[in-house]
Design brief:
The protein starts with 7 loop residues before the first strand and ends in a 5-residue tail after the last strand. A 6-stranded antiparallel beta sheet has the order 7-6-9-4-5-8. It has a 6-stranded parallel beta sheet with strand order 13-12-11-10-14-15, sandwiched between helices. The longest helix is centred in the middle third of the chain and has 14 residues. It is about 20% helix and about 30% strand. It folds into 3 domains: about 55 residues, Single Sheet (Rubrerythrin, domain 2); about 100 residues, Beta Barrel (Elongation Factor Tu (Ef-tu), domain 3); about 120 residues, Nucleotide-binding domain of ferredoxin-NADP reductase (FNR) module (Rossmann fold), CATH 3.40.50.80. It is of the alpha/beta class and about 300 residues long. The chain has 5 helices and 15 strands. The radius of gyration is 20 Å and the shape is globular. Helix 4 runs parallel beside helix 5.
């Protein structure tokens, strides 16, 4: 049987795997077809797995990043022991065409531990009405190169190159009741959507945010989220801890976030959902929502596997 020698493109960052060139830097010489690369191989540019690649003719043109933006780091705040809130100011150009739900590629410069540099996608966390700055909520990957750089080497005043904005994770504007589900740093994209709801004011649809964490120490920005309940009459915030500590004195929802959602969501046939978290969490949430009648085309998410 003839080998599939088509080019495959990463749906996250736009990198193209060309069998005619292979990936010699990672042990795959010219002439290696995409199907002959093991599943453990990752995109050399953004680090996602083969599952996030598709034949080039099947990848929407919008998947390819648009422009480079030079920004300056103006804020770096630890939210938990492994999650940071980054605030960046646009420098060249002075504005970025941000949209709620979008993501951008961080370009890490060459370092001693990664001489070639890397790029990784992170979701926008800011109020996109302000085009002069962009925020991110980023979790450290224990094996990650880019997050090591962000957590250990990045300082206030540093210049960073971003590419984008990218992605199709957007509010549908359908007016349907919405369920937002976030875990860990998944609050990043959800936060940008919440700012969009704020801009709608009383016209914002009925929305419930389920935010999952292991214990109270890993919940963050709760003051902002609870305050939204007083500003948006149709908004409700439901945190859930999967393993609360005895010292947490936790009286709220407990258990995996999927359990909390399943207990509360009711008939979902006329609702829609926006999910941000690990691939495993997303898959479990989709199963719960569809089992409660939600059509799959009412479920929106961006899945990053790195």
């Amino acid at each position: 049987m003839a080998k599939d020698m088509r080019k495959y493109q990463c749906k996250i960052c736009g990198y193209i795997y060309d069998p005619a060139k292979g990936d010699p830097a990672h042990g795959f010489p010219a002439g290696t077809s995409f199907e002959d690369i093991p599943d453990s191989w990752r995109c050399p540019l953004c680090g996602v797995t083969k599952a996030d690649f598709a034949p080039m003719e099947e990848v929407p043109a919008a998947a390819e990043p648009e422009e480079d933006y030079l920004v300056k780091v103006v804020g770096k705040t630890m939210l938990t022991s492994d999650i940071v809130h980054l605030q960046c100011q646009a420098v060249i150009p002075e504005t970025i065409p941000l949209e709620p739900g979008a993501w951008m590629l961080f370009h890490m410069p060459p370092t001693d531990y990664c001489p070639e540099g890397v790029a990784r996608p992170f979701s926008v966390a800011s109020d996109c009405r302000d085009k002069t700055r962009v925020d991110f909520i980023i979790r450290r990957n224990p094996k990650g190169i880019c997050t090591r750089w962000i957590f250990e080497d990045m300082n206030l005043g540093d210049a960073v190159v971003l590419k984008g904005p990218n992605g199709t994770f957007r509010l549908s504007n359908s007016g349907r009741e919405a369920i937002f589900i976030a875990g860990g740093s998944g609050l990043s994209a959800i936060r940008s959507l919440l700012f969009q709801l704020l801009s709608l004011g009383p016209a914002a649809p009925k929305t419930t945010l389920y935010f999952g964490a292991t214990n109270r120490a890993n919940l963050y920005m709760t003051d902002f989220l609870y305050a939204l309940e007083h500003v948006l009459p149709n908004f409700r915030f439901v945190p859930s801890l999967s393993r609360p500590e005895p010292t947490d004195n936790w009286t709220g929802k407990s258990g995996n976030i999927t359990v909390t959602v399943g207990e509360e969501c009711g008939d979902c046939s006329q609702k829609e959902a926006y999910l941000c978290g690990s691939p495993g969490m997303l898959d479990a949430c989709i199963q719960v929502l569809t089992s409660h009648g939600m059509p799959e085309n009412h479920i929106f998410y961006d899945k990053f596997s790195s």
